[in-house]
Amino acid sequence: AGINLYDVLEELFENELIKGALSLDGVLGTHLGPRSNNSVFTALHRMSGSVSGQAATLAIPRGGMGAVSGALAEAAKALGVSIIFDARVGRIERDGDRATGVRLATGEVMPADAVISSADPKSTFLDIVGPRNLDAGLVRKISNVRQSGNAAKLHLALDGLPEFIGLDSDQLRQRLVIAPDPNYVERAFNHAKYGEHSAQPVMEITLPTIHDPGLAPDGKHVLSAVVQYAPYELKAGWDGSRERFTDVVLDTLDKYAPGIRGLVTGKELLVPADIEARFGNIGGHWHHAELALDQFLMLRPAAGVAQYATPIRSLYLCGAGCHPGGGVMGHAGRNAARTIIAGDEK
Q: What span, in angstroms and rounded, lies between the C-alpha atoms of 317 and 177?
């Protein structure tokens, strides 16, 4: 699994389009190119999901991804859970080596028998718990977790349905990929090695309104795309580069969907720095931490905190920075819940 995806694809496939699409699956959301070691592993992780029993399938929920969060919230409320919004946690309250609750940024203390964090590892340990409350060895491990994002998210509001070269309207219902061949993907990654955004990015595109027309007014559409590569630590800084990269992305889209620029009535490009600012995950990585063999299984997010429990009693992890990583699947939360329940039964 630690070998590079490029060599595997060259050995098994002849069609460049297939090799390009599969190479994108091996690097999406990561700081890897198809020729990078570890890319076979990330491709396998990407393919491990399933929808309705079908392996490696993707689904678009009615109402958008926010509907998934809403459904989870309603299910939790039905079980007596109270949800507080817009309440940033300032620190985790402790009594000796045990977590006893959280103190909000407003100063209000929320006592609890257990504190379960879905925040990224660095936010949990280095910001909310604080290095002075942790063993120096754990602080060093968490500080070295690689969690700088490399993917941007593009949202477009469109005045009509775009036309992609070679695709009919029914094919637009599917996942669309701009990754013509593995070398294109590798060249796109080359820029990220030097702190630059791609000059010709790769993309994973969906048109959610084809499946769910209620997401836009009649006759209008929205486009959502994951765009790589957009490194968190951009050498030129994102303040002066965001619009330039947005133009690069739209120019790339226009090559495959001529005239799409003329349909755009609204646009938003969230780079990793924006994702960090909006959602609070340090580095803006959508998996909270890079998926890699040295940050997986018993090493995710780090040795000693890989089984959801932490050195602080009653403090648990349940986010994408835990095994088995990111993606809308719920496994980390389910595993954490089992760990907590097992601990209570001892």
A: 34
